[in-house]
Write a structure and sequence with these properties.
The structure is a single chain. Strand 15 and strand 16 form a beta hairpin. This protein starts with 37 loop residues before the first strand and ends with a strand. The radius of gyration is 22 Å and the shape is globular. Strands 7-8-6-10-12-13-14 form a seven-stranded parallel β-sheet, sandwiched between helices. The protein is α/β, with parallel strands linked by helices. It is 20% helix and 19% strand.
């Protein structure tokens, strides 16, 4: 039977006591945009003489940055006068002001029973059966637009994306792509190549998608082999920017990502009824990713204050509620396999559910932590998409999405709440992708670790929770 060696020999790769793995509670910031950037789409050159003044990406005015995959511009304060002049001339087709993004979290007991989704004693998603067919491929790139990654984490190092055209640490843009020292992705918030995760959220997602398996310690991701491309767009507290999210999507397109994991939501209280939903440039960026063959996986959002999930068909949450074909929206299951009370849902908008409660995975600084939320469930679906592409790389995003939705395991609590009425099943998905039956794994017995009958850690615990799908964008 194929099974990760992690199962038999476990080490917590940190010098800190296990109890110290608790993440600090993060402050929810509700201020306006942290910078004065604008996201700009210019009118066609033939209809705008003034736009010719910035037609060349090599000779842009100060403060302007061109995103070639999206054909958009990010303009900071230095370029504002030039932008205003073009706007007055009619040269600007669309313009949006930047907005804040932030992470919110509720701390809880860091102890976890184990990665329950592997054993199936939380929610059985068919992982063991799927690993009889494939454990992933390093030819598949998954972009994680989040808080960065613990790039020195032993469980994440083997599957970290590498830019072969860049020389580490020389302070130069060796490959000429506009980003200096982007060896393992880029930190758009700090405008640097260091993608270190000071928060832990992005690392947790990366571990679910692709923590190295069969390496004798730690945890295993859905893919034991994959390429995780970390695109950091927040600060340590999880506060980021809509412009940076768009820039990260552009980078993912240019660097061959097949899947984008976007475990964050947008709050649109200030723009409801303004037509923003149909014209927003973030949505257009997601559409462009689809044109480049990318499946965009995002969170349905959480209601941790009330533990009463919203029907986002009638109370939209974005990007989850965008009418964008290449996007999958994910709800969270509780530890019993039912729709989590905190999870948003929507029989039209939300495509699928996945484990999201009490999930043990990699964290910042080489640690391991437990988190809950639709953010976490989203990473399961991103990982599943990558696993499918490892055996069927010629599939397009529509085929991958169809396989994931059509191969779900039915669950009564999801009827009338989720479009597929079921939750992720890796084994079923691989049968659909390969057209071949999967052999049943041989029975196994979990070893005892730290005095508990557990694969990876001590006794069960409550979990960290990330409201609103992990990240929230405040549009004032």
């Amino acid at each position: 039977m194929t099974y990760p060696a992690d199962k038999a020999q476990v080490q917590h790769k940190t010098s800190l006591p296990f109890a110290s793995l608790v993440l600090a509670s993060l402050t929810c910031l509700t201020a306006g945009p942290l910078n004065a950037s604008s996201i700009v789409k210019l009118a066609p050159l033939e209809s705008s003489a003034a736009a010719l003044s910035i037609a060349s990406a090599e000779d842009l005015p100060e403060g302007w940055k061109y995103l070639p995959a999206l054909d958009l511009y990010i303009v900071d304060e230095r370029g504002r006068d030039h932008l205003n002049a073009l706007d007055a001339d009619g040269s600007v087709e669309e313009r949006e002001e930047d907005a804040d993004i932030q992470l919110e979290t509720l701390p809880n007991d860091p102890m976890a029973d184990s990665q329950g989704w592997i054993e199936g004693f939380h929610v059985d998603i068919g992982a063991q059966e799927a690993w009889e067919v494939t454990t992933g491929s390093k030819s598949v790139v998954v972009a994680v637009i989040d808080t960065g990654i613990s790039a020195n984490h032993p469980d994440l190092i083997p599957n970290l994306w590498i830019n072969e055209g860049e020389i580490p640490g020389n302070g130069r843009d060796d490959d000429g792509n506009g980003y200096v020292d982007d060896v393992h992705g880029f930190d758009f918030w700090g405008d640097e190549g260091d993608v270190t995760d000071e928060n832990g959220h992005g690392s947790h997602l990366a571990g679910i998608i692709g923590a190295a398996g069969n390496d004798g310690f730690g945890v295993a991701g859905i893919n034991w082999n994959v390429r995780i491309l970390p695109l950091k767009f927040t600060d340590a507290a999880g506060t980021g920017s809509s412009a940076l999210a768009i820039e990260a999507i552009d980078y993912a397109i240019q660097n061959g990502a097949r899947v984008i994991n976007a475990s964050w939501t947008l709050k649109l209280d200030g723009v409801k009824g303004s037509g923003w939903e149909s014209s927003n440039l973030l949505r257009q960026a997601i559409d462009k990713a689809g044109e480049a063959g990318i499946l965009f996986v995002t969170a349905a959002g959480n209601q941790f204050k009330t533990y009463q999930g919203l029907d986002i068909d009638s109370q939209p949450v974005y990007p989850a509620s965008f009418d964008t074909d290449n996007m999958m929206t994910v709800a969270a299951l509780d530890s019993e396999g039912a729709l989590a009370a905190y999870s948003n849902y929507g029989p039209v908008t939300v495509d699928i559910a996945a484990p999201g409660s009490g999930i043990y995975s990699t964290g910042a600084n080489g640690q391991y932590v437990v988190m809950s939320g639709t953010s976490i469930a989203t990473a399961f679906v991103s990982g599943a998409a990558a696993l499918i592409l490892s055996v069927a790389p010629d599939l397009d995003w529509y085929q991958v999405k169809s396989i994931l939705v059509d191969s779900v395991e039915g669950e009564a609590s999801l009827n009338g709440k989720i479009a597929s009425q079921g939750y992720l099943n890796l084994a079923n998905a691989l049968v659909a992708a390969t057209g071949e039956a999967i052999p049943a794994p041989a029975p196994s017995v979990s070893p005892t670790v730290d005095g508990a009958s557990s694969a990876f850690s001590p006794s069960p615990s409550r979990a960290f929770a990330f409201p609103a799908g992990g990240c929230s964008l405040i549009q004032e």
